[in-house]
Give the backbone structure.
Amino acid sequence: MDATLEATIRRELVENRDRTAPPPDAVPVPPLPAGRYHDERLFALEGEHLWRRTWLYAAHTSELTEPGAYVTFERSGAPIVVVSGEDGEVRAFYNSCRHRGAPVVRDDCGTAKRLTCQYHSWSYGLDGHLKAVPDARSFAGLELDALGLVPVRCEVWEGWVFVNEDPDAAPLVEFLGPLCEQMLEVNGPSLRKIGTQSHVVPANWKAMVDAFLEVYHIRTVHPDNAALLYDDTTATVAMLPNGHSRLSVAVKPELLGVMDPSPAADNPSVGALWRETSTSFGWFPNIVAPLDTGAFPLLCMWPLDRRTTELELVWFAPDWGDGDTPEENTLRMTLFETVMAQDTANMGGIQRSVESRGARPFQIGWHERLIHHFHRAVDLAIGDEVPAELRVSPALDGYVERA
Ligand code: FES
Ligand SMILES: [Fe+2]
């Protein structure tokens, strides 16, 4: 991480710990309408304008190392296949045969020499070109070159593979902006995916994202784990462009080093700040990445419907060489389940509350302003159609840190 930025974060951690009032530049955070967590119109607008027009994390290159390795991705609302080509390029296509629409791969992941439809065996190269049509003599005027799989925008940054259904979207690195520089030291391409965990949560996806954008709750919700390790009063945050964010909280001085992995499970490219704090990055719209020098998850919030969310934890670990993943990595995964059980326990109650006649706008503290920032970015992604009574105020727009 850039030395000036690291010095700023370290200074703010101390300033936040020591302050007795909001920082001098703080302003009231506008209340958040409770309807944002259940309104059918807003949920439909998110489907139309957010999920189909935003870069979404879809895979990691460690899943796509050999030519023909593929994963499917349906989170934007359409069936997509992400596949590694013979040239090593990662591409995405709609998983939809140009003959009569059947999927060209049916498994969630696998390896294929060609993408062959299982309905009538039209067969496509890994670059999407239509290569073979059985009984081609029966199609008058068939033009193989014009009938390739329909491409979806797919770009890779540092091993993280993103897709975007909007052909006119700005490039991924432009969308990620300062995250690119700030996350560089995790050395994404060197990481290996070690597993996933999944929880179905009875709440709107935004309520689940909110829970990972502040550490105000750790003393009450995580008294036996996170609150023992971290000093939540130090929390320092940055509202970054395009709804992205950064949150750091200091490890308690007396516990520095206790969570350090053994050398075999350590990421040597990670510097001191990430060893002395928990520093997580919000990848708008739906991912929180608590990067770490050992194994860590991407916390992915995927809406199933307006009041149900899949919380998917996709775990990564530094490359450990040959053999099975070090046991301490799988142990971290197991321990984290306790934390997730605590985080998800409130969610059903919150959802019932926001849908009740007692629902009132949410009060957001200055130290929770990433929640406001995230919701504001949802509105900006949708545009003018957000119903007036559900809109988020632009009052904090001036606090977004432009790189
Ligand atoms: S639908 Fe794919 S070959 Fe017929
Ligand atoms: Fe939590």
